[in-house]
């Protein structure tokens, strides 16, 4: 009786996604929605397959939409195929309730996010294996793509990027960095634009030293600009 109910509910899901009529292996989707911790190793295989197909399709679509901006392509791709974004997508399209567990982990825990994201990837893998690449691609475009794009979150801008913008706005050369180390695990960084020294800082890591140096470079330049403006007023 339980198997019949699972089969029926899966068939309804496939109908909602427009996949039922062409499906030859409905039980494949049941495996995709059964977490591997329930003794279903086929789920892992489908998840890996679905991950590869999803990456291929998202890269194809993104390079068409952002043909001249490869940096933007990388940023968007990394964001919308993260576990958190995929879990939200699975929720939005109504896939999460079909995952075959007695009870899902509490949302938004890491266990919940990983389980739901994996189920979506495994489901995509099942579509590919059952109906081929073109049908799988059309499924992603028709039912997932717009939802996935809404999950995009632009990475926080670091101090290096802020300094690059600051110098670019003034028509100056991009920053150059000279890093060094001292005894005791101390890292240092000197920042230049062309041959002009901007700032120097030290920290417990190269990244920390660079971030502080960039911050000081921006602050120092702004202070010098204010001083020049005050001098002009006095004249």
Strand content: 5-15%
Sheet with the most strands: spatial strand order: 1-2-3
Q: Write the CATH architecture name of the largest domain.
A: Orthogonal Bundle
Name the CATH superfamily classification of the largest domain. Answer: Ribonuclease III domain
Silhouette: elongated
User: Given the helix and strand composition, which structural class is it?
Assistant: mainly alpha
Radius of gyration: 26 Å
Distance N terminus to C terminus? 92 Å
On the 0-100 scale, what is the average pLDDT?
87
Order of helices and strands: HHHHHHHHEEEH
Number of domains: 2
Highest-level CATH class of the largest domain: Mainly Alpha
CATH topology of the largest domain: Ribonuclease iii, N-terminal Endonuclease Domain, Chain A
The major sheet is characterized as:
3 strands, antiparallel
Structure description:
The chain is mostly helical and 235 residues long. The chain folds into two domains: 2-149, Ribonuclease III domain (Ribonuclease iii, N-terminal Endonuclease Domain, Chain A), CATH 1.10.1520; 159-234, 2-Layer Sandwich (Double Stranded RNA Binding Domain), CATH 3.30.160.20. Helices cover 62% and strands 10% of the residues. It has nine helices and three strands; from the N terminus they run ααααααααβββα. It has a three-stranded antiparallel beta sheet. Helix 1 crosses helix 2 and helix 2 (26-32) packs antiparallel against helix 6.
Any key phrases for this structure?
3-stranded antiparallel sheet, mainly alpha, 235 residues, 2 domains, Double Stranded RNA Binding Domain, 9 helices, Ribonuclease iii, N-terminal Endonuclease Domain, Chain A
């Amino acid at each position: 009786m339980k198997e019949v109910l699972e089969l029926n509910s899966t068939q309804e899901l496939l109908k909602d996604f427009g996949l039922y009529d062409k499906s030859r292996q409905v039980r494949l989707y049941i495996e995709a929605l059964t977490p591997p911790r329930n003794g279903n190793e086929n789920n892992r295989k489908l998840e890996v397959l679905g991950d590869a197909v999803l990456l291929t399709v998202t890269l194809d679509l993104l390079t068409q939409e952002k043909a001249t901006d490869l940096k933007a392509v990388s940023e968007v791709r990394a964001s919308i195929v993260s576990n958190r974004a995929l879990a939200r997508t699975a929720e939005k399209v109504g896939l999460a309730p079909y995952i075959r567990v007695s009870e899902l982990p509490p949302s938004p825990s890491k266990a919940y996010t990983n389980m739901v994201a994996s189920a979506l990837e495994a489901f995509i893998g099942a579509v590919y294996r059952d109906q081929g690449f073109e049908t799988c691609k059309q499924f992603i475009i028709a039912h997932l793509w717009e939802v996935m794009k809404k999950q995009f979150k632009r990475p926080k801008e670091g101090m290096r990027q802020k300094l690059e913008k600051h110098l670019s706005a003034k028509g100056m050369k991009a920053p150059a960095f000279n890093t060094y180390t001292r005894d005791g695990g101390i890292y240092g960084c000197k920042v230049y634009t062309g041959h002009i020294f901007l700032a120097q800082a030290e920290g417990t890591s190269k990244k920390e030293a660079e971030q502080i140096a960039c911050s000081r470079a921006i602050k120092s330049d702004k202070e010098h600009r204010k001083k020049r403006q005050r001098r002009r007023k006095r004249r």
